[in-house]
Write a structure and sequence with these properties.
It is a single chain. The protein is mainly beta. It is built from five helices and 36 strands. It has a 22-stranded antiparallel β-barrel. The protein is globular and about 80 Å long.
Length: 737
């Protein structure tokens, strides 16, 4: 209590105004976190994640700057891509840990996510397996405010309903804070597709074969996703213990009906089917427990963080396929493919961080750490054709182990109010060993990479909100276990007893693969607007060596009496990719005085790439479109409890020359989304969301030039596939209890 006033103190004037000082605290805004980060980082918080009311986190990602949606019909899932690069170029993390194989982001709902961080260039701490960039999804964190949200709804697409329910609860008891997010979903999807295949003689242009295949697929699946965060605060210096158990489980059944009509049978004619049916029953379970202990060493000493996880995932599938000829009751061919996969992993991390300088405005911190990860994978697969086992020489069991070790040192230094420097050095080594399928053969692949990293931030005038970023980095892409040592896979369309088609090859691993290495340059100019919002322009360049690509060749194989076309990953040479990324986020009244307070979000990215050793034109990186763009806006009507919003996603069509004898062409995609939110009360909202409002077919064409034998004439096989897309409607009730 303050000391009593002396008796002679003068009383305050009666008319002196009283003053009230209010101090509030909280996390920095998304824009401020992005602005203060020396390494280029885009932060997407809860408000923007909830904006459209998407059903899955994958739908949220496709509208973010520099993120390209996966190829194929809109809304059908698949991993997101940064800078148009697929196939493992984008590092996907959940709470800083790599996403396990087989896990789909469609199993994670937006209600379970606290924020999304997009790093355009790697850092030593987050890892360098990110040639295109890193997407880190941070699950809901514990905070003091009590939260109890319930969301119930359903989706509808092409005759199939997808009901779902999600619940999030957050509360605290003294120094213990917990967060629980649970979602249950049951998707039902129906899709169709047609493929027209022709074979022509390149010299004469004569038509040697023509056929059409049609397919209808119906998928019913159910799943549950549970994420939790249990946090104990240990003292007042920020010490804490956090445990985060997570569980994802899904199971379902896929029914297929297909036909094949050969208007011009190939010569020699193959004994193919006229129609058929198939089914796949599958299930996937992923369990993981993350842990982190943070402790300050001394009252003002460095901070020690020990963490890691223990995880296990398993998948099982049973695929039956029966092929028939018209007029015959017995199937021409029946196959049964039973697969079981189990993978266990352990990860341990240690990090020590502390200040190396404490001058005001010149913070200088050092971070060092080490990581150790072990993965053991076991597969059991049985393939039979007409009751006879296939690939008998390779056995039914397949085992693989991976050991990854890493160490890094990172220096973050605010040199002065104008300059900030972020420098790091990371070493990472990976050792993979597994069965090749034959007795006594256990191929081993070892690789290690040094990745130096430098990020510079320059503020010409610290009192203003303009800044320039520069990043010089090295990153890499490591081959997956399946690409290294996978046992052969027989294409289901052509029996192993005879030849197959170059557009329907078998698959096999390559234990001699080397990781891709990339040297990168990123340069960004950012302007942060008063009252919120940001304008930015970013250019990037990557030189890639040891490029990995699937190469299809005719091989003499042990699993067939005749040569078969086989696809394997191979290092084919060097490549270059570059581009520009533009982003604008603002309110309309910030540009036009008196305009409505419409929230505007635009981004445009243009890409170019070139693969050395592949003849042009169009010798670009596989699956990289020429660009991507989003145009979005939302507005809360004045005086009315309604919020309206919409977004247009555009990806132009492109052609890729994969090799001298193979090319792929993909058509343009335009996806319109819109939503209406009715805020009935502070505790209840009703949302109607329409995705892909102008549905368009997804078209792709593959061309392959080949000769049946080295001395025979060249042929060109052209396969044109058409997959229709559909409008997806979602109705959801958002309840705060």
């Amino acid at each position: 209590m303050p000391a009593p006033r002396p008796a002679q103190a003068t009383a305050p004037a009666a008319d002196a105004p009283s003053q009230r000082v209010e101090i509030t605290g909280g996390r920095e805004s998304d824009a401020e976190q992005r602005r203060q980060s020396t390494a280029a980082r885009i932060v997407i918080g809860r408000e923007e994640i909830d904006k459209f009311g998407d059903a899955t986190i994958g739908e949220v990602l496709r509208r973010l700057p520099g993120v390209t949606p996966p190829a194929g019909p809109p809304g059908r899932g698949g991993p997101p891509r940064m800078r148009g690069l697929g196939g493992g170029y984008t590092q996907l993390l959940i709470d800083g840990q790599r996403v396990p194989p087989g896990f789909s982001l469609d199993q994670l709902t937006p209600e379970q996510v606290e924020r999304i961080e997009i790093l355009r260039a790697p850092t030593a701490e987050t890892g360098a397996r990110a040639i295109a960039g890193t997407i880190n999804i941070v699950t809901r964190e514990g905070f003091k405010r009590r939260l109890n949200d319930l969301r119930v709804g359903t989706g509808y697409e092409n005759g199939g309903f997808t009901p779902g329910i999600s619940w999030t609860r957050n509360d605290s008891i003294d120094d213990f804070i917990y967060n629980v997010s649970l979602s249950v979903f049951r998707p039902h999807r129906i899709s169709t597709g047609t493929t027209d295949t022709t074979v022509t003689d390149l010299a004469s242009g004569a038509l040697l074969g023509a056929e059409r295949s049609e397919a209808r697929t119906e998928e019913r699946r159910s799943g549950v996703a549970l994420t939790t965060r249990l946090q104990w605060r240990l003292g007042t210096s920020g010490d804490s213990l956090v445990l985060s158990p997570t569980m994802f489980h899904s199971e379902g059944r896929i029914e297929r009906r297909f036909t094949l009509a050969q208007s011009v049978p190939p010569a020699p004619a193959l004994p193919l089917y006229d129609f058929g049916q198939g089914s796949t029953e599958s299930r996937f379970t992923n369990l993981r427990v993350n842990g982190q202990w943070r402790q300050r060493l001394g009252s003002s000493g460095p901070r020690l963080e020990l963490g890691g996880y223990v995880g296990r995932w398993s998948s099982a599938s049973d695929t039956l396929r029966d092929e028939f000829r018209s007029g015959q009751a017995a199937p021409l061919r029946s196959t049964d493919d039973i697969a079981r996969t189990r993978e266990s992993s352990v990860n341990l991390t240690a990090k020590l961080s502390g200040l190396a300088g404490t001058q005001p405005g010149r913070e200088h911190s050092l971070v060092g750490g080490a990581e150790l990860e072990g993965v053991k994978r076991r597969e059991t697969r049985t393939l039979t054709e007409n009751g006879l086992p296939q690939l008998a020489d390779f056995g039914d069991e397949f085992e693989a182990t991976t050991l990854r070790t890493a160490a890094y040192l990172q220096d973050e230094w605010a040199v002065n109010p104008n300059w900030s420097l972020h420098a790091g050095l990371r070493w990472e080594g990976i050792r993979t060993q597994g069965d090749a399928g034959t007795a006594g053969d256990r191929p081993t692949n070892r690789s290690s990479v040094w990745t130096p990293l430098v990020h510079v931030l320059w503020k010409p005038d610290p009192k203003k909100r303009d800044q320039l970023r520069l990043s010089l980095t090295r990153s890499y892409r490591s081959p997956g276990t399946q690409a290294l040592i996978a046992r052969p896979g027989i294409n289901g369309r052509f029996p192993a007893s005879g030849p197959n088609d170059p557009t329907s090859p078998d698959s096999a691993g390559n234990p001699n693969l080397k990781p891709e290495l990339a040297t990168g340059l990123d340069l960004a100019l950012e302007r942060y607007l008063d009252g919120g919002g940001v304008l930015s322009a970013n250019v990037f360049h990557r030189n890639i060596s040891n490029l990995m690509r699937s190469v299809t060749t005719l091989e003499t194989v042990s699993w067939s009496p005749v040569p078969r076309w086989v696809s394997r990953q191979q290092n084919i040479g060097d490549a270059v990719t570059q581009g520009i990324e533009l982003e604008a986020k603002y309110r309309l009244d910030q540009l036009i005085a008196g305009a409505p307070r419409v929230e505007m979000r635009h981004n445009l990215a243009l890409f170019r790439s070139r693969v050395d050793g592949v003849p042009g034109p169009d010798n670009r990186l596989d699956q990289q479109a020429r660009g991507t763009a989003n145009l979005g806006a939302d507005y809360r009507l004045r005086g009315l409890p309604f919020t309206l919003g919409g977004n247009l996603n555009w990806v132009p069509g492109y052609r890729t020359q994969l090799a001298a004898d193979r090319a792929v062409t993909v058509n343009t995609r335009r996806v319109w989304d819109g939503f209406v939110l009715w805020t009935v009360s502070p505790a209840l909202g009703v949302r109607l969301l329409g995705s892909n409002l102008d549905p368009r077919d997804s078209l792709s064409t593959t061309e392959f030039d080949y000769a049946i034998l080295p001395a025979t004439a060249l042929r060109r096989e052209t396969a044109a596939s058409n997959s229709p897309s559909y409008v997806n409607w979602q109705l959801r009730f958002e309840i705060r209890l």
